[in-house]
Amino acid sequence: NVMATEFDGVIGIDLGTTFSCVAVLLHDTIDVIPNDQGNRTTPSRVAFVNGQTLVGDAAMNASLRHPKQVVFDAKRMIGRKWGDKDMQKDCAVWPFGVEQQRGGDKTGVEIVVDPNTAAPADDEDVERYPVKRLAPEQVSATLLRYLKGCAERHLGKQVKRAVITVPAYFNDAQRERTRAAGKIAGLEVLRIVNEPTAAALAYGLDKRPALSSGDEEDARNILVFDFGGGTFDVSIISVDNGAFVVVGTAGHTHLGGQDIDAKLTKYLMEEVKRRHKVDVS
């Protein structure tokens, strides 16, 4: 059994707001692993539909027919407090339910999903499934487990260890909950890596002589712009003998590609209504 063999390396996972990916270093080459559809990025979505759990592209495809059963933006919820102002704004637009945490210290959030797509009165013979109440890290864990499986199928070996990237501005609670998601997914998370640091490593900036030697004082500082699907982050990284230190970070947690899409959609709907007196909302 090939899968009984354990991979002795480590996978790297970019757990994004809108898309995620998994990569591995093989023979001195970074290999971004394709998912089951052959895509090297996977939508960060999980759907709970009539007893089935769908992840990635399958969950994205279910969004049109079953929007209330598809969970996304788990990264915007993980480690956050129910009372956060931004959390309340997001709750108003998410099609799935988000409530105050029932257990624990009751300060966090829970995602609430009714997996039943048919109303009870539609067909009494249809099996009914219990409502799901999930912590954000449980949703992230489902996505991580899927990416872990993609890596295992690609490598033909069991994968046990991973590093996971997070925004530089993530606080201790958000980092700890991300690590917990990895543990739930069956991964030993060796390190939580700041996303701008990962970007600098990907560009090989730790290997450039002027940066790693410190011969040029100004060259030791790198400005990283990270414009993603859910966030926009700017970080200044200092390089000292090949090691990266995040000196400062700033950004906007709600200025990503999907936020621009939402603004454009809202504008176009308003224009259609104004010009043609048709409400397409």
From TrEMBL:
Superkingdom as given in the UniProt entry: Eukaryota
InterPro entries: ATPase_NBD (IPR043129), Heat_shock_70_CS (IPR018181), Hsp_70_fam (IPR013126)
Alphabetical UniProt keywords: ATP-binding, Nucleotide-binding
SUPFAM superfamilies linked: Actin-like ATPase domain
GO MF entries: ATP binding; ATP-dependent protein folding chaperone
Xref: PANTHER family: HEAT SHOCK PROTEIN 70KDA
Species: Neobodo designis (Flagellated protozoan)
Pfam families the record matches: HSP70
Name under which the protein is recorded: Heat shock protein 70
